[in-house]
Write a structure and sequence with these properties.
Blueprint (H helix, E strand, L loop, with lengths): L1 E6 L9 H17 L4 E4 L13 H10 L5 E8 L5 H14 L4 E6 L6 H7 L10 H12 L20 E5 L2 H10 L3 E3 L8 H11 L11 E9 L3 H19 L19 H10 L3 E4 L1 H15 L3 E5 L5 H16 L1
Parallel strand pairs: 1-2, 1-9, 2-3, 3-4, 4-5, 5-6, 6-7, 7-8, 7-9
């Protein structure tokens, strides 16, 4: 099982932004030694507790503090940018760190509507042509664009693999049509995963980039020395998702500061649905559950999201997870 990391650059209560970024760099260096394949950062905006907004800048910082792990976006929200700017940014990154940069692409705003409108200079396209702009990116990276009046330099001729991200069947159809790897956001929107998985595999068309379907799933992993410890640590994750439901924008808090008991029945139901793909427990418990899941889904790669307040406990969870995947 190929295993990777998704980092949202969570801001823990009491940490500065600088300390948050330093923790991400330490986390990347640590997980590199544990055999993780990728370290991806996700684009979010206007969120006090998630500061991966300048995603390409943060990717460069992580790549500079590691040696071999692949670093990339999980993902870049393409409607927020021009395709030329992304080709230039990732062409620059891949020129600095050859054969290490991934470009995961999504079409969600990664933020609230007003912020998205600001990012897009007021141009909200409700019929956004994701496929068209992916092809534009391909053109900018291609050497066949060398005679064009508008070129991505750096970018042109640089090898940067694309990954289609999504949480719906629409993205599954598109990834299959384009013959690209498909990464599903199961860590917060698992509802359509099984339908999307079937659609992607049944409709996949081999391409110059990929011969057969390649499925990546992002899920929540929180491991502890005991199952009791893991469930205690997971309170932070559940509180973070509850804060999304209640629009409570605050830093990530410790398990002891969580207030999950006062959620309504409706909110608890939504929280349960959001976190359906969460593997929580000691190593043995999680391994049994995950082995069954892999047998059922035949996924090719797992990307783990681990929202634990205590940094040392988070690193321990990564270590336990790596050992599980290696077995």
């Amino acid at each position: 099982m190929i295993y990777s990391i998704l980092d949202l650059a969570y801001v823990m209560k009491g940490d500065t932004f600088t300390e948050t970024f330093e923790k991400s760099a330490k986390s990347a260096a640590f997980t590199e030694k544990l055999g993780y394949t990728r370290y991806w950062l996700s684009e979010h905006h206007n969120m006090p507790n998630v500061i991966s907004a300048a995603t390409s800048v943060l990717i460069g910082y992580i790549a500079a503090n590691t040696k071999k792990i692949r670093v990339g976006s999980g993902g870049i929200m393409l409607p927020n940018h021009t395709t030329l700017s992304i080709a230039e940014q990732f062409g620059t990154l891949a020129s600095m760190y050859p054969n290490r940069i991934d470009l995961g692409l999504g079409r969600a705003p990664g933020t609230d509507g007003l912020t998205a409108q600001t990012l897009r200079r007021g141009q909200m396209d409700f019929h956004y042509d994701f496929e068209k702009h992916i092809h534009e990116l391909e053109t900018y990276f291609s050497t066949s664009n060398s005679e064009a009046k508008v070129r991505a330099l750096p970018g042109e001729g640089v090898e940067v693999p694309f990954y289609i991200l999504g949480s719906s069947i629409d993205s599954a159809f598109l990834a299959a049509k384009l013959g690209r790897p498909y990464a599903f956001a199961g860590h917060f929107a698992p509802a359509q995963f099984y339908s999307a998985l079937e659609i992607y595999r049944e409709n996949f068309k081999p391409s110059e980039y990929l011969d057969q379907p390649y499925v990546m799933l992002c899920a929540n992993f929180i491991l502890g020395e005991t199952t009791e410890e893991a469930h205690y640590l997971s309170r932070t994750m559940y509180q973070s998702f509850a804060n999304i439901l209640t629009d409570n924008r605050q830093a990530i808090v410790s398990p002891d500061e969580c207030d999950l008991e006062n959620l309504s029945e409706q909110q608890l139901g939504m929280l349960k649905n959001m976190t359906a793909f969460s593997f929580i427990g000691d190593q043995k418990t999680v391994k049994e559950k995950f082995d069954d899941f892999v047998e059922q889904t035949k996924i090719d790669e797992i990307i783990i999201s681990t929202n634990i307040f205590d940094f040392d406990k988070k690193m321990k969870s990564y270590e336990l997870a790596a050992s599980l995947f290696q077995s």
